[in-house]
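Continuing the series of single-chain predictions for the mutant panel. This is the parent chain; the variants come on the following pages.
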Amino acid sequence: MTTGFPLSEPARAKINLTLHVGPPIGNGYHPLKSVVVFANIGDIVEMRPAQGDKSTLVIEGPFANGLASDRTNLILKTAQLLSDEKFDLKLTKNLPIASGIGGGSADAAATTRLIAPENIDQITTDLMAIGADIPVCLRSKTCLMEGKGEQLTPLPNLGSINAVLVNPGVAVSTGEIFKLFDQTKPTSANLAVELPNTTDLMELAKWGRNDLQDVAISIAPEVQTVLDALSEIETCQLARMSGSGATCFGLFSSRDQAVDACAGIKDENPDWWSVATVLGDTV
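Parent structure:
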């Protein structure tokens, strides 16, 4: 923890193990059905009472460049929404930007847990206006996310799974992905299909799919390159894109397998961001 910032909160990476997408509804949002897990890596948000007359945000870390620290940042938007008090906030940005793993929403959720931990259930609707993934990131537990992101059903007792996260250094626009999805996907997912009755996280992941993956590949072919690199690893059980991309994940049966796979990817593609991690609730 940085000296001078007494309060600190992790903002764990959000991974969509599955992402089934329905047609847009009246307000332009798409109903979703997604099994969401969280990694044992993420950004870090720190906070103290403001030393000046307004809230401030300092951003450090490997992905700080290109991220605004003004009122457009979700952290400051969240702080302003939640309280009339002023805060000095610091973000250590460890996750790639615009990468499909909920970085901005996770940061806003961490800010919420710092400022108003006792009012999380009451303020979820307000936070949806800032980011649709904020409610699930507030809880940071394995769950089924439905609707626009506000309908959350806990999925306890599924344990954890070893994984490698890989991003090719390409930022994709979620809005552009959904716009192209509407143009190229005339038939929508059957969101009424029930989840399989299983306590195996790997089985649950293999059951589903990501309906945005093919669309993302058409915009950013690098996504397919990453998926191919993961799929070619003999021990990889499943390779898939998370969210609207471009981060992809590979699932493995053991920690050693994931660490070895990550090392190989780093050797062959040193410009990519890759990390071995654990997904699920026992991290």
